[in-house]
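Sample entry (219 residues):
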Amino acid sequence: YLLAGASLLPLLAVPLMRDTYPALPERQVAAGTASGRLKPAVALLVIFSLYLFIGAIWAFLEPIGAQSGIDAATVGIIVSTSLLVQVFGAMSATWLEPRLHYRSVIGGAAFVAVLIGIGFASDPSAGLFWVLSLATGFLWLFVVPWQISMSVDADPGRKAALLVPAAQLFGAAIGPAGASAFIVAGDVRPVAWFAAACALASLLLLISLVLMNHRRKGH
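Predicted structure, serialized as tokens:
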């Protein structure tokens, strides 16, 4: 009943929102060009790659902790705390989103994610494990508004924006499967290296998207 009520509650805000959205731009930039078709796909791949990182880390958090000498009960507490940090990340993003450009936020998040993956691969201490886990939880929801901004910038018609949740969920679902292929003889450290590589791929894809935007403006 609580879930049903929480799902219905946002409907109360719909009458207040319907007139606040601007009309979609008539000018569909370069929609028929190779760059115009490629940019939405690259934007979605930026999101997909970052959530590969999140899915891989989150699915294997307990065995990564065990390999670093952290018991399952402690990892459980860390997971619960991370869920609270996710809420804080989402609230922070709501306040900061109008003030920051997606390039700096998503690029910074991907860079931090690379460092988190490297940190998990280095047999972290209990304190560092806490920090890395909570940072992962914070990034999980913090980057979402800027991912939507990036997708709208890549596709002003908003079609790519509709696929942002799919890219997130698909990345989070595929991440554990991809990471598991690198586990050798019970050693889960390659999972963290896989996650770091996915975050690096997200960063490189973002850079390519920015370069495509500059090239278009140059013309």
